[in-house]
Amino acid sequence: MKNKIGFGLNPLKEDIRDIKFGAVYSLPALKELPAEYETGKPINIKNQQQLDFCGAFSGTAVSEDQEAIELDPLYQFAKIKQISGDPEEWGTDLRTIGKSFKEFGSIEKKDAPFGMEKERNFLADHKNYPIDLDDKAKIHKKQSYMFVGGSYDFFDNIRATLWANRDKKKSCVIGVLWASEWTNSNGIIKEKGTPQEGHAIKVFGWKMIEGEPFLKIQNSWGETVGDKGVFYFPRNIINLFSSFGGIVFDDMPAEKAKIINDKMNNILYRTGKKYLGQDMSKTQNELGCVEALSAVFYKAIGQELGENLSTIRLYNRLYSDKRFQRVTEPQLGDIIISPTNGQTIGHTGIISDKISDKNFLIMSNRSSDSLWSEHLTVAEWWYKYKNLPTAFFRYKEENAIINEELNQKKITLLTKLIEVYKQLIEQLKMKNKLGALSSSQNPEKLSLTIKGVILSLLPLINNIAGVEIGSETMTQVFEAVITLSGAVTAVIGYIRSKR
Predict the structure, then answer these.
(1) What 3 state SS string does 25-89 have?
(2) Which of 188, 349, 412, 419 has the highest local Cβ count within 10 Å?
(3) What is the pTM assigned to this prediction?
(4) In the sheet that 371-377 helps form, which strands lie side by side, from edge to edge?
(5) How does DSSP classify residue 455?
(6) Domains by residue range for the chain, with CATH
């Protein structure tokens, strides 16, 4: 007998402002990881039933590992929906899950006013919960949440993150594109299966199976599925079906974590700091500033900045180059430039560490010795170059430029494909003929038709979930979506013809 289950994780657009654990903390070397590891036994493997509450269930399960007390996922989902603003909207995403724990906290299970017997929209509306619960929830607030990230593949980034947090027994929430075949398995997942819907789950360790590490997953469908509610996932499945990402809760204040994260994620800032005190220009005068900046840019990005030896030409280049965005408020890694005007010589450099509310150090070429150094501040710059215009330009990371539209298309297509899949299943359920047809009316033909439609989703979602899509492939995907829509109609027509 198959279990009736719910999902509820939506795709999330990447945001370069997200704090990454691997940027704030140093991840351990893989050779330091033990063969097997577990944060601890789950307090209680709950059942979300058919509701879209997986984000709240997995999030509270992760928090329970740290708090060592059972928490209420129903209140948590209501706070998630309070943040998103629409209690009737299906599911949630990892960022909103993290925000709910940071902004509100969680209530303990003993204080839960409602159970699963209540209707879904009632449970999702925070207005139905006693207001005094918000004070009780503050005890279990998180200082910050960080996305799982580092220099390894996603599978090993998860393991390294868990091991780095072993003293605090931290687990993490990740999202997977759940395959229907996994639900009624013995819990050991080896095959890719047929992708179904986005689902949030808790990772709390890993174990060796047939000589290979498998992540230990706590699901939210009770103990009647998998290995008493636990599943085991290998590297290839996690890396292929986990494009949703993952988050871990942390005790570092978000403001401090963001400062460290921004420094480590800003490649111009990092590279500029690396070459402080070095001779980055062969021209030992005021004209060497562009040459030095260009050299640092090339070290960081691997691309030419061009327009050497002229601040005015560099300014024009920055203004027209799509890799750069002009900004008014400087941040770490921004390029500052005051172009030469007539006999008034200009200068250029990179914004470095913040020293007060609106003042930063500046990395630039020092004309006296041609060394790359922090010898000016923004305040000093404004005074020194007060007769010249000053502008700030922000380099947009390559992923932000090339992949921004592409990622949105991926998310849109993934959402549409999941919707088509759900509509197909709902149409078959509405006709209530699937069981009868499979046993008496040409079951082989119907099975092949349905199997063909469902399997056609797999390569599409695989591409959308984690592989860069070119224009040619994108066209193919759009054509495939149209073909898939036609296939849905064909299946429904087949059922009707057999009535």
Answers:
(1) CCCCCHHHCCCCEECCCCCCCCECCCCCCHHHHHHHHHHHHHHCCCECHHHHHHHHHHHHCCCCC
(2) 349
(3) 0.63
(4) 324-327, 391-395, 335-338, 347-356, 359-366, 371-377
(5) H
(6) 21-259 (3.90.70.10), 266-396 (3.90.1720.10), 399-497 (no CATH)
